[in-house]
Design goal:
By secondary structure, this protein is mainly alpha-helical. Helices cover about 85% and strands about 0% of the residues.
Length: about 350
C-alpha cells in the first residue's frame, strides 16, 4: 500500500489511537499518580513563582507550596471524616426507617402481584445471608483501600514536589525536542504554547477548586437552614463531586435527596432539598463557572461529555476528572499547530 494513500494515513491514525489508549489503560497504575501530580504542579506554579520572586530558593518554595496544600487537604478530609462518624450515629434510625419502608413494599407487592410476604422475606433472607458472608472481605477491602490511598498520596506528593523543582529542566527538554525535530524557528512558538498551557491549566484548576470551596459554604449553610442533619458533610461532598462536569452535581445532590427521603416522614423536605440544588446548579452553570472558569478551557459540551465517558472507561473516576483538562491542553496545542487547527476548531466552542 502506498504511503501517500488516504487508507494508509487512516490506518496510521487508527493504530496511533489504539496504542495510545492501550498504553493509558494498562499503564494507569503508573500514569494516574503522574497525571494528578502534573495537574497539582501546574496549579501551584503561580504560588511557587511568587515565593521565588520573594527570594526563596526553588526547592524550599516548592516544599512550602506542597506542604500548604497538604495541610488544607488534610483539614478537608478531617472535617469529612468527623462528619462521617457523626453520620454513623444515625444508622439505627435509618435502619428503622428502611425497615418500615421495606414492610410497606412487602405489603404493596403482596396486594398487587399476589406474592406472599413470607416468600418475599425468605428470598431477602437468602440474599442477606449471601451478603453477610462477604462482610469480612468488605472490611478487608476498606482497609486495603485506605492504605492504598495513603501510599498514592505520598507518591503524588513526591511527584508534585519534584515536578515543581525540575519544571525548568522539563521545559528545556521539550524545547530541545522541538528544535531537533521541527527546527529552531519553531522553538519560540513552542515556548509560547508551554507558557499558555501552564497559565490556562493553573487558572482553570484554581477556578474549579474556588467554585468547589464557594459551594461547600453555600451548600452547608443552605442545608443547615433547611434542617438537614450532617449538613457540613453533605455540603462539602456535593461541592467536590461537582468537580466532575455535568454528572457530578446530579450524582451528589441525588445522594442528599435520597438521604432526606429515607430519614423524613414527609416528601416536603426532599422536594425542598431538590429545588435548592436545582437552583444552585443554575447559578453554577450560568453565573459562577462561566465567570471563574468559563474563559479558561473553551470546550464544546459534546466533546466534554465524550471526554468524561472516555476518561471513565480508561481511568475510572480519576479519568472523569482529569480527561477534561487534558482535552483543554490538547486544544491549546491544536490551536497553535497549523496542521491541527481543524481539530481545535472541532472540539472548541468558537
Amino acid at each position: 500500500m502506498a504511503r501517500n494513500s488516504p487508507v494508509y494515513g487512516f490506518n496510521q491514525v487508527m493504530l496511533f489511537v489504539v496504542l495510545l489508549f492501550g498504553i493509558l489503560y494498562f499503564a494507569k497504575p503508573f500514569l494516574i499518580p503522574v497525571a494528578i501530580a502534573g495537574m497539582m504542579a501546574m496549579l501551584l506554579v503561580p504560588a511557587c513563582r511568587r515565593l521565588e520572586h520573594w527570594g526563596i530558593p526553588r526547592g524550599p518554595a516548592a516544599g512550602i507550596c506542597v506542604l500548604t496544600t497538604l495541610v488544607l487537604l488534610s483539614g478537608v478530609f478531617y472535617v469529612l471524616f468527623y462528619q462521617m462518624m457523626s453520620l454513623g450515629t444515625d444508622i439505627p434510625a435509618i435502619a428503622s426507617k428502611l425497615n418500615a419502608m421495606l414492610n410497606n413494599a412487602h405489603q404493596f407487592i403482596s396486594e398487587h402481584f399476589q406474592l406472599p410476604i413470607a416468600e418475599q422475606k425468605d428470598y431477602l433472607q437468602r440474599q442477606v445471608a449471601g451478603l453477610s458472608s462477604l462482610a469480612g472481605k468488605f472490611i478487608g477491602d476498606i482497609f486495603r483501600s485506605v492504605l492504598s490511598f495513603l501510599v498514592h498520596l505520598l507518591i503524588v506528593t513526591a511527584y508534585t514536589l519534584l515536578l515543581l523543582i525540575y519544571r525548568g529542566r522539563i521545559k528545556t527538554f521539550v524545547l530541545r525536542l522541538v528544535a531537533q525535530y521541527a527546527g529552531e524557528e519553531n522553538t519560540k512558538n513552542a515556548q509560547r504554547v508551554i507558557e499558555k498551557i501552564t497559565r490556562v491549566a493553573s487558572a482553570y484548576l484554581t477556578g474549579v477548586f474556588s467554585v468547589a470551596l464557594i459551594f461547600s459554604v453555600i451548600n452547608s449553610v443552605g442545608l443547615i437552614i433547611i434542617g438537614i442533619e450532617n449538613a457540613l458533610f453533605f455540603g462539602i461532598m456535593v461541592a467536590f463531586i461537582n468537580i466532575i462536569p455535568y454528572v457530578g452535581s446530579v450524582a451528589g445532590s441525588s445522594v442528599v435527596v435520597l438521604y432526606t427521603l429515607i430519614t423524613r416522614d414527609t416528601l416536603v423536605t426532599p422536594l425542598i432539598v431538590a429545588v435548592f440544588f436545582i437552583v444552585l446548579q443554575q447559578i453554577d452553570s450560568y453565573v459562577l463557572t462561566p465567570k471563574i472558569t468559563g474563559g479558561k478551557i473553551q470546550l464544546s459540551a459534546l466533546f466534554t461529555i465524550m471526554a468524561l465517558l472516555l476518561g471513565s472507561l480508561v481511568w475510572g473516576v480519576a479519568g472523569m476528572i482529569l480527561f477534561v483538562p487534558f482535552l483543554g491542553v490538547a486544544k491549546i496545542i491544536f490551536d497553535h499547530v497549523d496542521s491541527l487547527k481543524p481539530y481545535g476548531y472541532l472540539i472548541g466552542v468558537h
